[in-house]
């Protein structure tokens, strides 16, 4: 069974940086995309970005493009979300998810980690 565990959330001032980690287990992930989503207070869950586990190719949502970077550590089955130039509107619960690359449904989700950006 696939298990995803996020860590690294916390409180940061606007303009600061934070790095989230997602430790993945329970499968070989070579056929997967790993994604990051967030849910801001009172808002629907929003796509942040994704990375193809094998190729490392990334894709980002417009609201974070140029500020956030996704990477992965193949040896440790971990995906990272580096968040720079944080804004108060980035405050959200951040979730890690994964899916088989050619499928549209994100099948597995972590429990989420809170990120709070103060102004």
Give the topology, please.
Layout lengths: L2 E5 L2 E4 L4 E8 L6 E8 L6 E7 L5 E3 L7 E6 L4 E6 L8 E9 L7 E2 L3 E6 L1
Parallel strand pairs: 2-11
Antiparallel strand pairs: 1-3, 3-8, 4-5, 4-9, 5-6, 7-8, 9-10, 9-11
How would you summarize what this structure contains?
By secondary structure, the protein is an all-beta fold. The chain is 0% helix and 54% strand. It has strands spanning 3-7, 10-13, 18-25, 32-39, 46-52, 58-60, 68-73, 78-83, 92-100, 108-109, 113-118.
Features:
4-stranded antiparallel β-sheet, 119 residues, 7-stranded mixed β-sheet, globular
Question: What do these coordinates show?
Answer:
The protein has 119 residues and is mainly β. Helices cover 0% and strands 54% of the residues. Strand 4 and strand 5 form a beta hairpin.
Shape: globular
Biggest pleated-sheet summary: 7 strands, mixed
Quaternary structure state of the chains depicted: single chain
Structural class of the helices, strands and pairings?
mainly beta
Distance between the termini: 40 Å
**Mean pLDDT rating:** 96
Number of strands: 11
Alpha-carbon Rg, integer = 13 Å
Helix content: under 10%
């Amino acid at each position: 069974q696939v298990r995803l565990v996020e860590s690294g959330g916390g409180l940061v001032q606007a303009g600061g940086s934070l790095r989230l980690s997602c430790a993945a287990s329970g499968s070989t992930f070579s056929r997967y995309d790993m994604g990051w989503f967030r849910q801001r207070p009172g808002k629907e869950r929003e796509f942040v970005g994704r990375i193809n586990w094998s190729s490392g190719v990334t894709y980002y949502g417009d609201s974070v493009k140029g500020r956030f970077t996704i990477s992965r550590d193949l040896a440790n089955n971990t995906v990272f979300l580096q968040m720079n130039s944080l804004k108060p509107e980035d405050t959200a619960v951040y979730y890690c998810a994964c899916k088989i690359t050619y499928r549209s449904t994100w099948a597995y989700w972590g429990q989420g980690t809170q990120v709070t950006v103060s102004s």
